[in-house]
Known about the structure:
31% of the residues lie in helices and 27% in strands. By secondary structure, the chain is of the alpha/beta class. It has 2 domains: 6-129 and 306-350, Rossmann fold (3-Layer(aba) Sandwich), CATH 3.40.50; 134-304, 2-Layer Sandwich (Dihydrodipicolinate Reductase, domain 2). The mean pLDDT is 93. This is Saccharopine dehydrogenase.
Amino acid sequence: MNNQLSVLLIGGYGVVGKQVAALLNQYYPDVHIIIGGRNINTAAAFASTLSKASAIQFDINAPLLPVNIRPQLIVTLANDPDNRVLHFAIKNQIAYLDITRWTDKLKTAITYTHTFDQLHAPIVFSSTWMAGVAASLILRHALKFKQINSIDINILYSMQDNSGINSVDYMDRMLIPFEVIAEGHTQSCMPFSDGRLVSFTDKKRFRVYRFDTPDQLTLPMLTQARSVSTRIGFNSNITNRLFYVLIHSGFWRLISTQRFKSFRQKLLYNPGKGDEHRILINFTGTDSANQPAQSILSITDPKGQSHLTAIGAFNQIHSILTQQLSNRVYFGETLPDINIATNILKKEGVKIDFD
């Protein structure tokens, strides 16, 4: 890297954005960080706490940069639902990183990139869980197998964690079916269904339920796994049971209109001072001797999900700025040098265990 490099963080003063900026400042102090958001005063106030940083007003719905600012990379840390920032980046030949998309929005964005005759900068979608952290480690771990039958991703969501408001957006998708690959075939699943008890530790056993993440789109393609599933549960079995009843009784449907959006958010979004984020991944398949094999990968961030997401985003930024990427579309989990990424994760206190 050199002192000419600059990175625009859209939503850079949010919960995750602040941590991404701090990581960039810490590891690459020569990179100029541009904090972008609708509130220029908030952006400027945060930028003043960083070294080599500035702030601009940036509206996702009407993307525009000052004539004297041209970053090498645009990072969207806030939702780009109508692909307006994606369009802006492609038209202006600026590299683009997005970590915010649900599966259907990811498919739409990939399709949208195909409407351009040519790309002049890399486009990276890293919306799998924790900005690609889980999926990139899964790809490395998958090399232990000759054939993978199943990858089951189980996530423990702490009610005490410090997170941004977007972290509970998935609860607005509890009535929307989604597609998964099971036994080599596409099938439709309903959110918060097919529950199972998972032992995250000897003393932490919670019920987790199906929900939609892009991991269930990308990992079958990248690992040839016959089945991939993602489940999530709260670190309170009472809360898990409550939401199961709310959803399956039909009450959630009654309050799923825009009128009750703030009410739904209040039910879930009460961020605490922070708590650990746990991911437990189970693999089954065959080994090099064609014998049945199984393995477990565990990822724990004592500083919580926003911290883990920030590390994931930082690892993607590092890859884009330091690798000679072609001008095409990438899944973010395929990019990081896994040894470098793992070292950064561990340096930041993330625990990675596997058998």
